[in-house]
């Protein structure tokens, strides 16, 4: 990345080039279908439907694919057969699975204590959810990750670009400047490597996700932020009878997020709101739980609960993760972003 200062850049350039070569093997462009006898027009139809890689193709059902205008069942069969010659869609050995896990990168949060809690940082190919009360640091962590993702992997970064979907209008590009400076990076270059969109409806939010596949198949993205994932759903579905429909649309969007994470080896960081939990128990004075119900709970790989501590300190608790203990870390919000607590 061009964001790092000169001397460090020279030092790391060679290793980064090697990294990028390795990346090339991660996903196969959908155009490769042409070499397998699929005509370019049909490949274009897949791209128009948001499918840019052969790896991505297998994440759609045949029913979905035949729903694409101009693709008959026979054509879809031919396309799937051709794609299977390019990507292995079946079983792999445990050793290969381990190798695949090794392409997973952990991106630093800016706080060593928080990184340790997360087993090294936020993980690519997974969804990290942060929920918690207002001003607990969810958006500040998003801003810090915007910068740290661009660090080389040797410096606990992701050596990649960032996509930011903002549903609450709380992205502050001016906050990126001191955070970039803290990490010794050029703020202008860091800002250039972030693509940002403000979403106004849940449909808009979904369409923005669809548009990302094209960008991510062309350039190395390592982080997608959705802050917050649920706010627009709570605005757009207000009627009592609308909850089932809301959950169905939410599930659809979350499934899109999971696909992006896995297809492009991207870390998805999404924030969530908290709602009152009347069933939280009589010994908890102000019981709260994450919004989004089971649909959201199932989608997140790692769920983190944020709360305020004293002063600028914040506490993060692992709420639900398959391979992490339920523990806590204290961090601090500073002008340079998330950092370790001072005392
Ligand atoms: P909601 O979106 O309202 O639910 O909250 P959130 O969890 O996203 O909170 P956010 O990450 O926006 O954290 C806001 C907190 O960060 C506030 O307490 C601010 O005072 C603090 N903060 C923001 N910028 C700075 C800064 O430059 N320096 C310091 N020290 N604190 C900051
Ligand atoms: Mg926020």
TrEMBL record:
The keyword Coiled coil applies. Residues 1-32 form a coiled coil. One of its GO terms (biological process) is reciprocal meiotic recombination. One of its GO terms (cellular component) is condensed nuclear chromosome. It is found in: Nucleus. Gene3D superfamilies: 5' to 3' exonuclease, C-terminal subdomain, P-loop containing nucleotide triphosphate hydrolases. The keyword Coiled coil applies. NCBIfam families: PRK04301.1, recomb_DMC1. It comes from the Eukaryota. Belongs to the RecA family. DMC1 subfamily. SMART domains: AAA. It comes from Populus euphratica (Euphrates poplar). This is Meiotic recombination protein DMC1 homolog. Residues 103-274, 280-343 form the RecA family profile domain. PANTHER family: MEIOTIC RECOMBINATION PROTEIN DMC1_LIM15 HOMOLOG, RECA/RAD51/RADA DNA STRAND-PAIRING FAMILY MEMBER.
